[in-house]
Amino acid sequence: MLKKLFVHEWKDSWRLVGIMNLIVIGLTLIGTFFLNNETWNAMDKNEFIAVTVVVYMMFFIASIAALSMVVTFYFYIRFYRNLYTDQGYLMHTLPVTAHQLIWSKTFVATIWMVISTVVMVGSIFGLVFAAIPGEERGEFWREMSEAFAMMDFDGRAVVIVVLYILAIIVGQLSNVFMGYASISIGQMFKKQKVLGAIGVYIGIYMLIQTVSSYGMMFVTMFIDPYVMETSMEADNFMIVFLLILMLISGLLTTGFYFITHYIMKNKLNLE
Amino acid sequence: MSALVECVGLTKCYTNGVPAVAGLNLTIEKGHIVGLLGPNGSGKTTLIKMINGLLRPTEGAVLVNGNEPGVETKKVVSYLPERTYLEAQRTVADMLAFFEDFYEDFDPERAKDMLASLGIETKARMKTLSKGTKEKVQLILVMSRRAELFILDEPIAGVDPAARDYIIRTIISNYNPEASVIICTHLISDIENILDDVVFIKQGQIVLQMPVDDIREKHGKTVDAYFREVFAC
Asked: Is A44 exposed, middle or buried (0-12, 13-18, 19+ CB in 10 A)?
């Protein structure tokens, strides 16, 4: 049933996010084509081309910003509408569990977040790379490979990179579930459920920021002198730091998940 | 006869502390069409939501086929809520595929026949359909299942008399004698001819559960007239 839920969620949600990604890719291709072309160089001499470049850059930046907003909020809106408004009468009477409902939406949202992040980063990199004059590109790659060669890629460096990627994924999941938990708490309100959800989200966000600010203060006051005293290597410190970060994100993710599941199972409040 | 739905001491209190359903005991046998009737705020929708697993009881239990509401009961209960739950972007064909995927007892051919008889295109998107047509599509989806229990919440409210006749015909023609149907409505006179039993509910408690024939014989009244007498303001 999870697979079926996933397939239907994908079918229902791909249009908007897919089209947004295609727009960013399309604008990037147009930009790189003209950057690789002599037309772009005529910008200083031709006012029409200069204005077109400005308009193009505006569209490019707006498309990246819009994609970033869409992947963040679209899936929250879908979660709310699909599970806590009239559509919830269908979704919650399907022969599926609340766990399956939550995970099907999480998988689709996460996949689109990863795809969109790759598209956004790739587009910016692609455009920047295309702006480098052809004769200097060889130099660019040479400098990049030299920079990588200078890095000491021993076992610990690989561990740090892997932990860093994992920390980003767990952090992303934590964000997704924080939204789901806020929406689930918000739907319990008698009126203004959406406003309630936004309020809960802001409240949780501020609480986490406050706690993490004091946490960083704790690190600065107690951990840093310890690291200096014991001359703990920076690599090891980084590994410990990333592990603690992942542990905290993991705990938050689990907490938000179970709040969402508990409310969906026991405190559903469909009008 | 075996019990299809059994409510024992069923109670639901909302946050204001007032019970919407209070210690309700109810048994519905297989093969009956039951009218669940009561004034506004009597607890009908709360009861229906608990049978469907959309609300958890504060006390007591509700069992469908001997199981508490969950995945197993949702496989055999076909529910038509008062609200329209069809997503605007989906086509009628998408909804047929959706029901076919999730409900093993869904009969797509039966649904297509009913849609064709009403001239509803399967390619049509929900957002292009009128409110009445959407309600008909939803009813067709629900009634095209070979479920053991159909729960229809206000199936004829808000539609014109011709559509009411169609809906009632659909309920009768798709009704499997082994299944039971619970119909919750205010429009008693329109449906009383198809009911086997009625359940009157008031302030979250059952005040009467009786075969329709008994009401006519013992009280010499129609269900509609008897309802007006019992719930007279």
From this structure: exposed
